[in-house]
Amino acid sequence: MKKLAVSLGSIIFGLGIVLALQAPQRQPKTKPLASSVKPEPRTPVSRSEVDKVIRAWMRPPQQTARKMINKYGLPDEVTPFRLVWHSNGPWKRTELVNDEIPHFFPKPHNDMLLQTINYRVPPDRIDELAAYDGSVIAERTKGELSARCDMEEANFLALNLADEIIRGEKNVENAREFHAEAMRQMRHPNYKQGFLFEVSREDQGDPDRELVP
User: Fold this and answer.
1) Main-chain dihedrals φ then ψ at residue 14, nearest 5 degrees
2) What's the CA gap between 168 and 175, in Å, rounded?
3) How far apart are CA 49 and CA 55, in angstroms?
4) Phi and psi for 150 in degrees, rounded to 5?
5) Which of 13, 32, 62, 156 is buried deepest, with most CB atoms within 10 A?
């Protein structure tokens, strides 16, 4: 009887193991990574909404707005003061504001159209860019390079020359003279029609390094 009880106990124990292995395993509850959460889709804006906004704008930004819409379609973001396009054509971002920022280089005009690309500017070249054109803006941490003017053609020109300064092909004085020729004398049209260098679609940010005491 004792042997029978031991055998029966062994069978029951083995059966329990088999059933446990066959049962579905409960997965631990974990929160998804932030990077795996998809952002909510942006609600598209209508042409009538955009027209209502820009009708109240000053005439030059209003004209630029219509030109950008005809070329790139409706903006992704609209506020009473600002229109923003993301990933439009060769640009990472285009931002147009209802403002006129006085700028006298290479001739008097008003800045209002800011356009941005991915570009890692070496820190030792940032001062040269500022000396070349105060409306060329380098953001080291974000890895972005922007130009702000009153027309897209001038932004192409400014960033093409900024790239040549960074690569050492032109110095500040050469770049300023070239820029003035292009805008005042309508020369060098290829510099105003698109980029003469390859623009990265990858993140170019420079997060720097921790300063350890």
Assistant:
1) -65, -40
2) 11
3) 10
4) -105, -5
5) 156
Conformational region of residue 154, where left means phi above 0, alpha means psi within -120 to 50, and beta covers everything else? alpha
CA-atom Rg of the chain in angstroms = 30
155: nearest Cα among 177, 179, 175: 179
Structure tokens at 65: 């707005």
The tokens describing 174, both together, are 């050469």
CA contacts within 13 A on the Cβ side of 160: 20
| CA proximity to 159, closest of 193, 123, 112 | 193
Using CB atoms within 10 Å of the CB of residue 64, give its burial: 0 to 12 exposed, 13 to 18 middle, 19+ buried: buried
Q: For the whole model, what pTM was predicted? A: 0.80
Q: How far apart are CA 207 and CA 143, in angstroms?
A: 9
C-alpha 72/C-alpha 66 separation (Å) is 10
115: part of which helix (H) or strand (E)?
strand 109-118
3-state secondary structure of 144: strand
Helices (H), the chain: 2-22, 47-54, 59-72, 126-132, 152-166, 172-184
